[in-house]
Amino acid sequence: MATDLAVRRYRACYKALLRLYPQPFQDRFGEGMAQTFHDHCRERRNGRRGLFGFVLWIFCETSAGIVRENTLEMTEWRKTLLRVALGALAFWMVPLVASQFVEDWHWGVGGFVFAYGMFFATGLAYALTARKMGAWAYKAGVGLALVTGFVMGWSTMVHISESENPANFVYFGVLAVGAIGAWLARLEARGMARALFAMAVTLALVAAFSFLRLPAAPAGPVWDVGVAHGGFVLLFAASGLLFRRASTPPLK
Cys staple from 145: which of 6, 34, 168, 239, with CB 3.0 to 4.6 Å? Predict the structure, then answer.
Protein backbone atom coordinates (compact mmCIF):
# COMPACT_ATOMS: atom_id res chain seq x y z
CA MET A 1 0.00 0.00 0.00
CA ALA A 2 2.83 2.40 0.87
CA THR A 3 4.49 1.59 -2.46
CA ASP A 4 1.24 2.33 -4.35
CA LEU A 5 1.07 5.68 -2.61
CA ALA A 6 4.66 6.41 -3.62
CA VAL A 7 3.86 5.56 -7.26
CA ARG A 8 0.90 7.94 -7.25
CA ARG A 9 2.99 10.71 -5.72
CA TYR A 10 5.80 10.21 -8.22
CA ARG A 11 3.30 10.28 -11.09
CA ALA A 12 1.73 13.51 -9.78
CA CYS A 13 5.17 15.11 -9.53
CA TYR A 14 6.07 13.89 -13.01
CA LYS A 15 2.87 15.31 -14.52
CA ALA A 16 3.67 18.64 -12.86
CA LEU A 17 7.15 18.49 -14.40
CA LEU A 18 5.67 17.82 -17.84
CA ARG A 19 3.80 21.14 -17.67
CA LEU A 20 7.15 22.87 -18.18
CA TYR A 21 7.23 21.61 -21.77
CA PRO A 22 5.93 23.97 -24.50
CA GLN A 23 2.16 23.68 -24.87
CA PRO A 24 2.20 22.00 -28.32
CA PHE A 25 4.57 19.34 -26.97
CA GLN A 26 2.35 18.81 -23.93
CA ASP A 27 -0.74 18.41 -26.08
CA ARG A 28 0.94 15.82 -28.30
CA PHE A 29 3.04 13.76 -25.89
CA GLY A 30 2.12 14.71 -22.32
CA GLU A 31 -0.50 12.07 -21.55
CA GLY A 32 1.50 9.30 -23.18
CA MET A 33 4.65 10.19 -21.28
CA ALA A 34 2.79 10.30 -17.97
CA GLN A 35 1.18 6.91 -18.63
CA THR A 36 4.50 5.34 -19.67
CA PHE A 37 6.16 6.67 -16.54
CA HIS A 38 3.36 5.23 -14.40
CA ASP A 39 3.62 1.82 -16.11
CA HIS A 40 7.39 1.65 -15.56
CA CYS A 41 6.96 2.57 -11.90
CA ARG A 42 4.38 -0.21 -11.45
CA GLU A 43 6.67 -2.72 -13.17
CA ARG A 44 9.52 -1.83 -10.85
CA ARG A 45 7.19 -2.02 -7.86
CA ASN A 46 5.93 -5.47 -8.90
CA GLY A 47 9.51 -6.61 -9.45
CA ARG A 48 10.43 -5.33 -5.98
CA ARG A 49 13.05 -3.01 -7.42
CA GLY A 50 13.80 0.42 -6.01
CA LEU A 51 11.88 3.40 -7.31
CA PHE A 52 13.85 6.39 -6.11
CA GLY A 53 16.92 5.94 -8.32
CA PHE A 54 14.76 5.24 -11.38
CA VAL A 55 12.53 8.26 -10.73
CA LEU A 56 15.55 10.50 -10.17
CA TRP A 57 17.05 9.41 -13.49
CA ILE A 58 13.76 9.95 -15.38
CA PHE A 59 13.32 13.38 -13.81
CA CYS A 60 16.85 14.40 -14.85
CA GLU A 61 16.33 13.09 -18.38
CA THR A 62 12.95 14.82 -18.67
CA SER A 63 14.39 18.10 -17.37
CA ALA A 64 17.03 17.98 -20.11
CA GLY A 65 14.27 17.42 -22.66
CA ILE A 66 12.32 20.38 -21.29
CA VAL A 67 15.33 22.65 -21.73
CA ARG A 68 15.86 21.34 -25.26
CA GLU A 69 12.24 21.73 -26.37
CA ASN A 70 11.90 25.21 -24.87
CA THR A 71 15.09 26.25 -26.63
CA LEU A 72 13.67 25.01 -29.93
CA GLU A 73 10.40 26.80 -29.20
CA MET A 74 12.25 30.03 -28.49
CA THR A 75 14.11 29.65 -31.77
CA GLU A 76 10.82 29.26 -33.65
CA TRP A 77 9.43 32.26 -31.77
CA ARG A 78 12.39 34.38 -32.84
CA LYS A 79 11.97 33.23 -36.43
CA THR A 80 8.29 34.18 -36.27
CA LEU A 81 9.13 37.62 -34.87
CA LEU A 82 11.75 38.17 -37.57
CA ARG A 83 9.38 37.16 -40.38
CA VAL A 84 6.60 39.38 -39.03
CA ALA A 85 8.98 42.31 -38.57
CA LEU A 86 10.33 42.00 -42.12
CA GLY A 87 6.84 41.58 -43.56
CA ALA A 88 5.63 44.65 -41.68
CA LEU A 89 8.64 46.59 -42.98
CA ALA A 90 7.82 45.59 -46.56
CA PHE A 91 4.22 46.83 -46.22
CA TRP A 92 5.39 49.93 -44.36
CA MET A 93 7.57 50.91 -47.33
CA VAL A 94 4.42 51.43 -49.42
CA PRO A 95 3.10 54.52 -47.55
CA LEU A 96 6.68 55.73 -47.00
CA VAL A 97 7.40 55.76 -50.74
CA ALA A 98 3.91 57.06 -51.60
CA SER A 99 4.39 60.02 -49.25
CA GLN A 100 7.25 61.21 -51.44
CA PHE A 101 4.98 61.51 -54.49
CA VAL A 102 1.63 62.59 -53.01
CA GLU A 103 1.64 66.30 -52.27
CA ASP A 104 -1.10 66.24 -49.63
CA TRP A 105 0.54 63.46 -47.64
CA HIS A 106 1.53 65.21 -44.40
CA TRP A 107 2.31 62.41 -41.97
CA GLY A 108 4.84 63.14 -39.29
CA VAL A 109 7.26 60.69 -37.71
CA GLY A 110 4.59 59.60 -35.23
CA GLY A 111 2.22 58.67 -38.07
CA PHE A 112 4.76 56.40 -39.71
CA VAL A 113 5.68 54.81 -36.39
CA PHE A 114 2.00 54.15 -35.71
CA ALA A 115 1.57 52.70 -39.21
CA TYR A 116 4.46 50.28 -38.70
CA GLY A 117 3.02 49.30 -35.33
CA MET A 118 -0.30 48.47 -37.00
CA PHE A 119 1.40 46.34 -39.66
CA PHE A 120 3.50 44.53 -37.06
CA ALA A 121 0.63 43.98 -34.60
CA THR A 122 -1.65 42.63 -37.35
CA GLY A 123 0.97 40.22 -38.66
CA LEU A 124 1.96 39.04 -35.19
CA ALA A 125 -1.66 38.49 -34.17
CA TYR A 126 -2.24 36.30 -37.22
CA ALA A 127 1.00 34.36 -36.72
CA LEU A 128 0.23 33.61 -33.07
CA THR A 129 -3.39 32.59 -33.53
CA ALA A 130 -3.29 30.77 -36.85
CA ARG A 131 -0.28 28.61 -35.94
CA LYS A 132 -2.19 27.10 -33.00
CA MET A 133 -5.26 26.15 -35.02
CA GLY A 134 -5.50 23.69 -37.87
CA ALA A 135 -9.08 24.33 -39.05
CA TRP A 136 -9.18 26.27 -42.29
CA ALA A 137 -12.31 28.13 -41.19
CA TYR A 138 -10.53 29.38 -38.06
CA LYS A 139 -7.51 30.61 -40.04
CA ALA A 140 -9.79 32.25 -42.61
CA GLY A 141 -11.77 33.90 -39.82
CA VAL A 142 -8.60 35.24 -38.21
CA GLY A 143 -7.30 36.55 -41.53
CA LEU A 144 -10.58 38.23 -42.49
CA ALA A 145 -11.04 39.80 -39.05
CA LEU A 146 -7.48 41.15 -38.94
CA VAL A 147 -7.53 42.52 -42.48
CA THR A 148 -10.91 44.18 -41.93
CA GLY A 149 -9.81 45.61 -38.59
CA PHE A 150 -6.57 46.85 -40.12
CA VAL A 151 -8.32 48.59 -43.02
CA MET A 152 -10.82 50.22 -40.66
CA GLY A 153 -8.03 51.31 -38.29
CA TRP A 154 -5.97 52.65 -41.17
CA SER A 155 -8.85 54.62 -42.69
CA THR A 156 -9.71 55.97 -39.23
CA MET A 157 -6.13 57.13 -38.75
CA VAL A 158 -6.25 58.89 -42.15
CA HIS A 159 -9.56 60.59 -41.32
CA ILE A 160 -8.22 61.76 -37.97
CA SER A 161 -5.07 63.19 -39.58
CA GLU A 162 -7.15 64.99 -42.24
CA SER A 163 -10.09 66.26 -40.20
CA GLU A 164 -8.70 66.23 -36.64
CA ASN A 165 -12.17 65.18 -35.52
CA PRO A 166 -11.91 63.28 -32.21
CA ALA A 167 -15.26 61.59 -32.90
CA ASN A 168 -13.44 59.24 -35.26
CA PHE A 169 -11.76 57.60 -32.27
CA VAL A 170 -15.03 55.70 -31.74
CA TYR A 171 -13.88 53.28 -34.45
CA PHE A 172 -10.88 52.33 -32.35
CA GLY A 173 -13.46 51.50 -29.70
CA VAL A 174 -14.95 48.94 -32.12
CA LEU A 175 -11.51 47.37 -32.45
CA ALA A 176 -11.18 47.40 -28.67
CA VAL A 177 -14.44 45.43 -28.42
CA GLY A 178 -12.92 42.75 -30.63
CA ALA A 179 -9.63 42.68 -28.70
CA ILE A 180 -11.40 42.34 -25.34
CA GLY A 181 -13.73 39.70 -26.74
CA ALA A 182 -10.80 37.67 -28.10
CA TRP A 183 -9.06 37.90 -24.73
CA LEU A 184 -12.16 36.75 -22.86
CA ALA A 185 -12.65 33.92 -25.36
CA ARG A 186 -9.01 32.83 -25.01
CA LEU A 187 -9.05 32.50 -28.81
CA GLU A 188 -11.61 29.66 -28.60
CA ALA A 189 -13.58 29.50 -31.85
CA ARG A 190 -17.10 29.88 -30.44
CA GLY A 191 -16.04 32.79 -28.22
CA MET A 192 -14.26 34.43 -31.16
CA ALA A 193 -17.49 34.19 -33.16
CA ARG A 194 -19.32 36.06 -30.41
CA ALA A 195 -16.56 38.70 -30.33
CA LEU A 196 -16.81 39.33 -34.08
CA PHE A 197 -20.60 39.50 -33.96
CA ALA A 198 -20.27 42.02 -31.11
CA MET A 199 -17.95 44.11 -33.31
CA ALA A 200 -20.47 44.00 -36.16
CA VAL A 201 -23.32 45.08 -33.88
CA THR A 202 -21.24 47.87 -32.31
CA LEU A 203 -20.26 49.19 -35.72
CA ALA A 204 -23.88 49.01 -36.89
CA LEU A 205 -24.88 51.18 -33.93
CA VAL A 206 -22.12 53.65 -34.82
CA ALA A 207 -23.45 53.71 -38.39
CA ALA A 208 -27.00 54.37 -37.18
CA PHE A 209 -25.75 57.24 -35.03
CA SER A 210 -23.85 58.65 -38.03
CA PHE A 211 -27.04 58.62 -40.11
CA LEU A 212 -28.89 60.48 -37.37
CA ARG A 213 -26.22 63.16 -37.47
CA LEU A 214 -26.63 63.59 -41.24
CA PRO A 215 -30.37 64.21 -41.69
CA ALA A 216 -29.91 67.19 -43.98
CA ALA A 217 -26.76 66.02 -45.73
CA PRO A 218 -26.77 65.44 -49.50
CA ALA A 219 -27.23 61.94 -50.85
CA GLY A 220 -23.53 61.53 -51.60
CA PRO A 221 -22.19 61.62 -48.03
CA VAL A 222 -25.09 59.51 -46.73
CA TRP A 223 -24.43 56.90 -49.41
CA ASP A 224 -20.69 56.89 -48.65
CA VAL A 225 -21.30 56.44 -44.93
CA GLY A 226 -23.78 53.63 -45.55
CA VAL A 227 -21.54 51.73 -47.95
CA ALA A 228 -18.40 52.07 -45.79
CA HIS A 229 -20.08 51.09 -42.55
CA GLY A 230 -22.21 48.38 -44.13
CA GLY A 231 -19.18 46.81 -45.80
CA PHE A 232 -17.25 46.61 -42.54
CA VAL A 233 -20.29 45.24 -40.70
CA LEU A 234 -20.72 42.49 -43.29
CA LEU A 235 -17.02 41.57 -43.20
CA PHE A 236 -16.95 41.33 -39.40
CA ALA A 237 -20.14 39.25 -39.48
CA ALA A 238 -18.64 36.98 -42.16
CA SER A 239 -15.59 36.46 -39.97
CA GLY A 240 -17.88 35.56 -37.08
CA LEU A 241 -19.62 32.97 -39.26
CA LEU A 242 -16.25 31.44 -40.16
CA PHE A 243 -15.38 31.14 -36.46
CA ARG A 244 -18.77 29.55 -35.82
CA ARG A 245 -18.08 27.09 -38.63
CA ALA A 246 -14.72 26.27 -37.02
CA SER A 247 -16.44 25.62 -33.69
CA THR A 248 -18.90 23.13 -35.22
CA PRO A 249 -17.68 19.51 -35.08
CA PRO A 250 -17.56 17.79 -38.49
CA LEU A 251 -20.39 15.45 -39.37
CA LYS A 252 -19.50 11.77 -39.22
Answer: 239
